[in-house]
Every structure is written in C-alpha cells, then in structure tokens.
C-alpha cells in the first residue's frame, strides 16, 4: 500500500511539472509583438487601477506600448476595454482613455468599453462596438497574457496580431504563475 501511494505521488508530481513547463512554453510562444498596422482596430485589455485612477504598472506598460503604436499608425482606432472592479474607484476604460488623451491620442480615435470584468468579456464586449465586418484586430496586453488573449479572440472569430507590453519585474513571477492556471482553465472550459 505504501509503495502505491509513493508511486502515485511521484506520477502526479511528474505530470504537474510537465504541465507547468508546457503551459509556460505556450505563454512564451505568443509573448512577442507582431502587429504591423494592418488592423484598423486595436483593443487594449484592461488591468488593475489603483486608488485615484492611477494605472497599475502592468496597465501603464500596456498604455505606453499602445501610445507609441497609435502614434506610428494614425489610422488605427482603439478600444479601451475594462470595467470597474470592487476595489477600483474608476473604470479601467476611463483611466485608459484619459491616459491616451493626455499622451496625444485624439478622442475621436478612442472607443470606450467599460462593462467587462474578464479577458473574455473584454474581447466579446469590444466586438459588439466594432463594425460587424471587422475581422482583424490588434490586441495590446502584457507579454505573459497574450497567448490566452489570442486564443479567446480567435474563439470569437477574430484574426489577431499582438503588441506585447513589458511585464513589470516586481510582479512578473506572480502574474506568470497565475496566468498558467488561467490558461489551463481556458483550454478546459473555453473562456
């Protein structure tokens, strides 16, 4: 009986280790930018907003990446996507809109989606705001998040290219671990 328990434990640890490594490789495979200005619409996925409407480091990195791209491609319109969490005093979308406007992006290029509370909702609710014929989009998020975001967007019939914002070092380990669990859940339940 004791040998059986040890054998099963070793098998479970081995399987868990392999799953952890595989999910990490899946995340890394999509962690680089490939957007080239060919998509007319960009979606910036929301992230934590601190008290007073201050973007978290992750959100600020996404916004900095988006501003540079939008400056280089003035024909691209942008959806800022993110609702208000219970610990946020403003919607993520309103904070993103304000940031973009303060950094020279014309308000006429910005579409606000402020109801979503998850990555899937970010994409699904944003899709409702785009012209029906829109197929190709650019997604902006932190590098660790792009695999899952791309997978979900493709499940909504989008063709996707991505802009990878750098993940702040102070939260990178925690976010990459959490993203593995989120990616596994997405693969299992589909959203």
Question: What is the count of β-strands?
Answer: 7
Name given to the CATH architecture: 3-Layer(aba) Sandwich
Structural class of the secondary elements? Answer: alpha/beta
Assigned CATH superfamily: HUPs
Write a brief caption for the model.
This protein has 191 residues and is α/β, with parallel strands linked by helices. It has six helices and seven strands, in the order αβββαβαβαβαβα.
Brief descriptors of the model:
191 residues, alpha/beta, Rossmann fold, 5-stranded parallel β-sheet, two-stranded antiparallel ribbon
Please characterize this protein's 3D structure.
51% of the residues lie in helices and 17% in strands. It is of the alpha/beta class. It has one domain: 3-Layer(aba) Sandwich (Rossmann fold), CATH 3.40.50.620. Helix 1 packs across helix 6 (169-189) and helix 4 (119-129) crosses helix 5 (146-155). It is elongated, with a radius of gyration of 18 Å. The termini are far apart. The mean pLDDT is 92.
């Amino acid at each position: 009986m004791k040998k059986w328990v040890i054998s099963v434990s070793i098998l479970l640890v081995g399987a868990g280790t392999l799953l952890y490594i595989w999910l990490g490789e899946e995340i890394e495979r999509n962690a680089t930018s490939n957007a080239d200005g060919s998509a007319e619409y960009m979606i910036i996925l929301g992230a934590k907003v601190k008290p007073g409407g201050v973007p978290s480091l992750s959100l600020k990195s996404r916004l900095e990446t988006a501003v540079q791209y939008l400056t280089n491609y003035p024909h691209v319109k942008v959806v800022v996507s993110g609702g208000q969490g219970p610990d946020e005093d403003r919607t993520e979308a309103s904070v993103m809109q304000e940031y973009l406007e303060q950094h020279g992006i014309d308000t006429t290029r910005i579409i606000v989606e402020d109801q979503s509370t998850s990555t899937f909702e970010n994409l699904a609710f944003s899709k409702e705001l785009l012209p029906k014929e829109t197929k190709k989009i650019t997604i902006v998020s932190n590098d660790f998040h792009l695999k899952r975001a791309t997978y979900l967007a493709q499940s909504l019939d989008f063709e996707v290219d991505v802009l990878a914002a750098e993940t702040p070092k102070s939260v990178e380990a925690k976010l990459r671990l959490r993203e593995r669990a989120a990616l596994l859940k997405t693969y299992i339940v589909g959203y």
